[in-house]
Structure formats: structure tokens, C-alpha cells
Amino acid sequence: MTHWNFEYWARWVRHSAQATVLLLAVTSCDDLVTQVSAPNAHLPPCVEQNCNCGDFVSQELAQLVLNEDSNDPYNLDGDGNGRACERLPQATPDLDWETYFSNSPHIALGNPSHAGQENIDNYLIDRDQYVLAYSQSHGGLRWASWVLNRDWIGSTERQNNFRPDGILPKGTYQVTPRDYTGSGYDRGHMVPSADRTATERDNSATFLMTNIFPQTAENNRGPWKELEAYCRDLIYQQGKTLYIIGGVYGQKQPIAKQRVIPPSRTWKVVVVFDDEPTVDNVNYSTDTIVVDMPNGNRLDEQWQTYQTSIDRIELATGYDLLSDIPDAIQAELEARQSKH
Description:
There is one protein chain. By secondary structure, this protein is of the alpha+beta class. The chain has a single domain, classed as 3-Layer(aba) Sandwich (Extracellular Endonuclease, Chain A). The chain is 24% helix and 15% strand. The chain is built from eight helices and eight strands. It has helices at 6-26, 29-36, 59-68, 200-205, 217-220, 223-238, 310-317, 327-335; strands at 123-126, 131-135, 140-148, 186-189, 212-215, 241-249, 265-273, 287-294. It has a six-stranded antiparallel beta sheet, with helices on both faces. A two-stranded antiparallel ribbon has the order 4-5. Helix 1 (6-26) packs across helix 8 (327-335). The longest helix has 21 residues, at 6-26. The chain is globular, with a radius of gyration of 19 Å. The model is unreliable at 6-10 and 16-36 (pLDDT under 50).
């Protein structure tokens, strides 16, 4: 699901219908009711905690949440006129045209925001170690995607060489480590340092500031860290290969003289493979781990608390995740609530 408009609803209906047909084929009616009638399945993940206007990419999405409960438990309608978060853009922005195509295994299952080389707010950085989309207006990444298996894990020590990323186009502001000084945020990795320890070069690539975002200590050192460790345990203990997409959305008060906008939410999608992480190796039973959590100061220590579905992350972000997977399989995987 990608857009909050006719195209979005058409895709939503198609995915829902496909998922329902599949579930009818493989479950009893009682099981079907349980799987497709989750009360918040049509709402963004923030409703499981405490939404605020900074959590939404559009006014229409905030309005959807407000319309669910006229008591306005999240105080989205500050002036009481029946309209939520009126300063937000009216609709979720359409995705860019997809113009950049890569053979990188790190985006073998799709380019979530159709990032390319033309839009500096959706600028694709394609490295040996990972692929990410960068936004100059936010001073940070939108999402990153990377493969994790035993080939990427070694004994290299953490390099700790945070530095600007010279790959950005000329004239782009280069975020520096000092931009985070006194901000109250950690310099949070999206692609974890510990996921790239085979060589010094691999580990060093994770300390480029394009892979860093303002992350609260409670998120970074709490459930987010625990999920990262859980993913590596799947590699060490079960020999799995993981295809991981992680990202941020929403906004809080800017830092670094307005040049860096901390996100209000962090999310991650993990596709678990026994073999190579390719489209051909994805099927209806492929396991996924999906979380969306507040970038805040009061979090549950258990990452499992924040499990959700891919469909709901797409709703919250406007992205099209796992877009290269066949539609019927994609529909089933995206509708599924993560349960680990």
C-alpha cells in the first residue's frame, strides 16, 4: 500500500481481497476472523501507544485516526473544529517515479520510496554494505536496506569514526557528529555497527552520518538494541539469512540549527530466509518480523510489544515495501501481524 488516494485504496482493496482468499484456503473460519479483524489493522501503528501530530505524514491520515474516536484521546484536534493536525500536508505524497535500478542484493525485494539520483530528499546511496534513501530537508535517512548473514559477521572492532558522507551531491549540507552535541539524542545507527564486522571497511561504512539518525537513548539502548541482537541470534544459532529494511518517519523539534529533524517513530521489517534472499525464495510461509516503535523516552524493554504489520507501516509512511515480490504473496505477507 503506497498512497492515501485512489491508487492507495485500489491497492489496499486488492491486497485485502487476495489475503482474504488465501486465508480462506488455509485456515478455518474461526481462524480467519481472528487474522483479518484486528481492530486497528486499518490505522497507523501509533494508535497502540500515543499518537501526536508529528507522527503523521498527512492531515488525511491524522483525520482517519480522529474519526475513529470523537473523544479525541490523542488531542489531534486542538481547536475543536473537527479537523486533525491542520498544519500537515493534506495528502500523503505520491512516490517518485522509479528511475534507479540496481543489482544490489540489499534491495532485491524492492525500493520502498522509489529513491533515485534526482530528488535530494529521496536520494539513493548504493554501497557494497547497504543501500539507503537520504533526505536533505530532514538531515538524515528515510530508510536503509541490507542483507545480514554469516558472511557479514566477523571479529572487527567497532571503528567509532563518525564522519560526514562525501557521496552526497555538491551543495548538500553535510551533517557532522557535532550536530548532535547537546541535542539529547544518541547518534543512532540504522544499519548496526555489529551487523558489519567482517572487515574494517564494512564496519567503518556504518559510521557515515547518512546512516545515522537522532535516536532517543531509551529507543536506541532499549527495545531497538534488543531486536538487533535477536536478529543476529537468528544468524548465529539458526544459520538464517535476513533481508532487513529499517526506517524512520514523523518529526520532532529540529536540532543542529534546524538542519536535522529527529523522527518521532522508528520501524523495521525483517524477512527471514533459509537460502539466498531473493524474490524466488519468498513464499506464503516466509517468516517476517515487523516492528514500529516511538522514538521517545518511555518504552517497553521488550521489542515484541511493538510488533505490527507491513501494511500498517506502509500506511504510516506512504512507502511500497517488498514491491518486487509477486502481488499475491506480497499481499499475504504484508497483511500478517508479526508474532514473535
